[in-house]
Amino acid sequence: MEGPQFAAFETEYLRPKYEEMEASRRRLRSSAFMVALVSVLAMAAFMFVGRESAPSEDWYATVLKQVQGMRNPRYKCHTTEGDFVIELFLDTMPLTASNFMDLAETGFYNGIHFHRIIDNFMIQFGCPYARHHRHPWAGTGGPPASTTFKVANSYSVTRDEQGCIPDEFQSYISNVAGTLAMANKGDPNSGGSQFFINTVNNHHLDWWRHDLSASQHPVFGRIVEGWNTIRKISKMLTDNKHSPIKPIRMISVTRVA
């Protein structure tokens, strides 16, 4: 799906959901509820955050102000099955987007295989064990432990001893087709390098929909080019554990905007 087809897909499915969720976020952000939410997130992440000077508890609120008006970065993902381009929501999900940016720009994602594909659901990527096609531990790995990256070119965040970052439950963007969301281990603050691309609408995975699922997967980006590549990968033959039979390798992830 390219050109006019992708534009129609974006207009019909992605943009309305994006605008709807962002409008909700802006309304809630002005309320006492959002103030409390930001404070809780800041406290939960406090142990992860450092700076050349001592960080304050409201560091996350400061970051949110800093990223307002910033241009969201875009990255081209070059795979053995074709290319696609993603936009990261740095302006609303600065912590998670910056985590991805650091991993991409240090070459972490280069050479990793897509390790999980479920047709009419999603495709998953980002486990370092998946550098080897169909590795038995694929899906269990993450970034190097205790590594540090910058958020908004200001605050330093250190991943924990398992390479995980704090959950960023901040932006009300739904898991609609074409969006990127954080994968996790089923526990709080257990996301690292793995993410999935929704190939259909998966609203039950939204972090605020506790009545639909215990899973909580915040969205931090979307596909803006190359939907045909995503659809092609999503239809690849898999085994009974949803591992693709044919190797699908990420050759490079490069910033293009």
Automatic annotation (TrEMBL):
Domain PPIase cyclophilin-type: from-to ranges: 82-255
UniProt cross-references to Pfam families, sorted A to Z: Pro_isomerase
Alphabetical UniProt keywords: Isomerase, Membrane, Rotamase, Transmembrane, Transmembrane helix
SUPFAM superfamilies in the record: Cyclophilin-like (SSF50891)
Transmembrane region(s): 31-49
Top-rank taxon, per record: Eukaryota
Enzyme kind, highest EC tier: isomerase
Gene Ontology molecular functions: peptidyl-prolyl cis-trans isomerase activity
Alphabetized Gene3D superfamilies for the sequence: Cyclophilin-like
CDD domains linked to this entry: cyclophilin
InterPro entries (UniProt xref): Cyclophilin-like_dom_sf, Cyclophilin-type_PPIase_dom, Cyclophilin_A-like
E.C. number: 5.2.1.8
Catalytic activity reported: [protein]-peptidylproline (omega=180) = [protein]-peptidylproline (omega=0)
Family statement: Belongs to the cyclophilin-type PPIase family.
Record's function text: PPIases accelerate the folding of proteins. It catalyzes the cis-trans isomerization of proline imidic peptide bonds in oligopeptides.
Protein name in UniProt: Peptidyl-prolyl cis-trans isomerase
